[in-house]
Amino acid sequence: MTAARHPALPGLQGSLFDQGDDIRFGTLDGLRRTALDSGSWIDHLPGWLHGADALFEELAARVPWRAEERPMYDAVVAVPRLLAHYGEGAPLPHPALVEARQTLSSHYAAELGEPFVTAGLCLYRDGRDSVAWHGDRTGRSATRDTMVAILSLGDPRDLAFRPRSGGPTVLRLPLGHGDLVVMGGACQRAWEHAVPKTSRAVGPRISVQFRPRGVR
Ligand SMILES: O=C(O)CCC(=O)C(=O)O
Ligand SMILES: [Fe+2]
């Protein structure tokens, strides 16, 4: 009886899965650069990865996601997202991430002068998960220009930018379903970024951040 009420469901799931199984990157030809100031920029390419939803499902299932806690004033609070980190030389959880890192390293080789080596992953379970305003300025990025490249999977969430010196949000990029964004130049020192909480009904999103050695 129960199955008869949803006659289309097994077939529908099957066809979606087949389509999504084809995980492949498009070209980087459509990458567009936006200058935030004379020394900081954002490269953006919507829909770089085709089959991004299939990759989302695989990473959601196979990455050993960690829930973390951080001290905040007198209390210990849950970090509002799940995390995983792959340091230099650690095997990545999916060959598509190896390909992404290689392709980005080649594309930016001349400008960056070194490869992307680490991968940080965040899983935003719903609109209550977020990352507060910050720059990735632990380590070398505190003093030197660098790049952080982000591949976004699952439901789009806004990545917002504001100047570190104060002032309102100047740019909000909705990122999900295979979109690529690269923060470059002095972005981590001169600007802050955040994924704000949202009261909209949103599904989960995974962010994969590729960084060069010594950048966090
Ligand atoms: O979710 C994102 O795309 C950004 C994550 C981020 O800024 C970070 O982990 O440093
Ligand atoms: Fe960040």
Automatic annotation (TrEMBL):
Top-level division of the source organism's lineage: Bacteria
Stretches of the chain forming a coiled coil according to its record: none
GO BP terms in the entry: DNA alkylation repair
Pfam family, one: 2OG-FeII_Oxy_2
Domain Fe2OG dioxygenase, chain residue ranges per copy: 115-214
PROSITE patterns (alphabetical): FE2OG_OXY
Single GO molecular function: dioxygenase activity
Gene3D superfamilies for the chain: Alpha-ketoglutarate-dependent dioxygenase AlkB-like
InterPro entries recorded: AlkB-like, AlkB-like_sf, ALKBH3, Oxoglu/Fe-dep_dioxygenase_dom
Protein's name in the database: Alkylated DNA repair protein AlkB
Record organism: Streptomyces venezuelae (strain ATCC 10712 / CBS 650.69 / DSM 40230 / JCM 4526 / NBRC 13096 / PD 04745)
